[in-house]
C-alpha cells in the first residue's frame, strides 16, 4: 500500500512539472526554427536573433546548475552590458516584441521550446521596453502562459534572458 502511494505521488509530481501543449494549434516554435550553436547560444532563424539558452543564473548544457536570478530592471540592463558570454560583448535585454517571439503559443507551463531553452522558469522576464503609459515601469513576458504585464523598474525583481543580433554559420 505504501509503495503504491509513493509511486502515485512520484508520478503526479512529474506531471506537475510537465509542459502542456495543444495539438490543435500549429507549432511554429519547433526545433527546426532554431540553430543550436552548442556553446550555450541558440539562433532563431526567423527573427535572426541569438539567445542565451539559459536564463541568467542558470548554467550547463541543460541549464540545471544554479538558480534563475531575480533582479531589478537596472540590474538586468547592467548584467547584459557586462556579459561576455560565449565570447560576445554585445548582449542586451530584449525588447518586448523580441522576448514575446520566444513564446510557444501552443504550450504552457512553460510556453517556450523546452528542448532549446531548458529549465526556463514559468515566470516573468524583463524586457527593455518601457510601459506605454507609465514611464517608470517596463514590460515583461511570463513564460507560464505567454502573458505580458508591466512592473516598476526601481524595486520589482524578475528574471532575465539575454539576446544579441544573430549570426548564421556558413
Automatic annotation (TrEMBL):
Domain of life the protein comes from: Bacteria
Keyword Transcription regulation: no
Signal peptide residues on this chain, from the entry's feature table: 1-18
Residue ranges of domain Lcl C-terminal in the record: 40-164
InterPro entries found in the cross-reference section: Lcl_C
Presence of keyword Nucleotide-binding: no
Matches recorded under PANTHER family: LIPOPROTEIN (PTHR35812:SF1)
Name of protein: Lcl C-terminal domain-containing protein
Amino acid at each position: 500500500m505504501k509503495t503504491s502511494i509513493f509511486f502515485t505521488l512520484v508520478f503526479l509530481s512529474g506531471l506537475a512539472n510537465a509542459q502542456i501543449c495543444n495539438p490543435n494549434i500549429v507549432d511554429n516554435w519547433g526545433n527546426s526554427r532554431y540553430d543550436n550553436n552548442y556553446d550555450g547560444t541558440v539562433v532563431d532563424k526567423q527573427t535572426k536573433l541569438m539567445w542565451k539558452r539559459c536564463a541568467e543564473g542558470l548554467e550547463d548544457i541543460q541549464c540545471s546548475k544554479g538558480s534563475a536570478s531575480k533582479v531589478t530592471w537596472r540590474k538586468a540592463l547592467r548584467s547584459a552590458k557586462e556579459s561576455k558570454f560565449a565570447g560576445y560583448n554585445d548582449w542586451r535585454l530584449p525588447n518586448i516584441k523580441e522576448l514575446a517571439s520566444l513564446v510557444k503559443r501552443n504550450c504552457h507551463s512553460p510556453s517556450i521550446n523546452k528542448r532549446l531553452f531548458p529549465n526556463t522558469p514559468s515566470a516573468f522576464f524583463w524586457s527593455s521596453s518601457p510601459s506605454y503609459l507609465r514611464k517608470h515601469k517596463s514590460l515583461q513576458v511570463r513564460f507560464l502562459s505567454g502573458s505580458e504585464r508591466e512592473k516598476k523598474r526601481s524595486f520589482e525583481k524578475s528574471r532575465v534572458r539575454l539576446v544579441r543580433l544573430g549570426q548564421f554559420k556558413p
